[in-house]
């Protein structure tokens, strides 16, 4: 039986108004995650890379394109949108024309005791 590759999950913001930084931070804290904030200038790029933990990212302001080369996909995130990127999934980013502010958290891997 072949191993199924972990999937990237995009969750679009459904509220009427875009959430504030404090709302997004509270959402992450409810999941027992410790978010950190970062921002980037317009059109800034981050090279393709991966992490050894799951990454959870919300866009607070602006837009951010997530490039997923192994799936030949590019997804644009807007204010309030969330992406969950499993550990080891290769991805890169391109910041939108007005810059971006994000809240990001890493989900620690828990190993079972044998």
Outline the structure in words.
The protein is mainly beta and 114 residues long. The protein has a single domain, classed as Jelly Rolls. The protein contains one helix and seven strands. It has one helix spanning 21-30; strands at residues 9-11, 36-40, 45-49, 54-68, 73-77, 82-85, 91-107. Strands 1, 2, 3, 4, 5, 6 and 7 form a seven-stranded antiparallel beta sheet that branches. Strand 4 (54-68) and strand 5 form a beta hairpin. It is globular. The model has no long low-confidence stretch (mean pLDDT 93).
Please name the defining characteristics of this protein.
114 residues; 1 helix; Jelly Rolls; mainly beta
Summarize the helices and strands and which ones pair or pack.
Layout: E1 9-11, H1 21-30, E2 36-40, E3 45-49, E4 54-68, E5 73-77, E6 82-85, E7 91-107
Antiparallel strand pairs: 1-6, 2-7, 3-7, 4-5, 4-6, 4-7
How many domains in all? 1
Question: Beta fraction of the residues?
Answer: over 45%
- By oligomeric state, this entry counts as single chain
Radius of gyration: 15 Å
Shape: globular
The CATH homologous superfamily is called: Jelly Rolls
Question: In a nutshell, what does this entry contain?
Answer:
9% of the residues lie in helices and 47% in strands. The chain has 114 residues and is mainly beta.
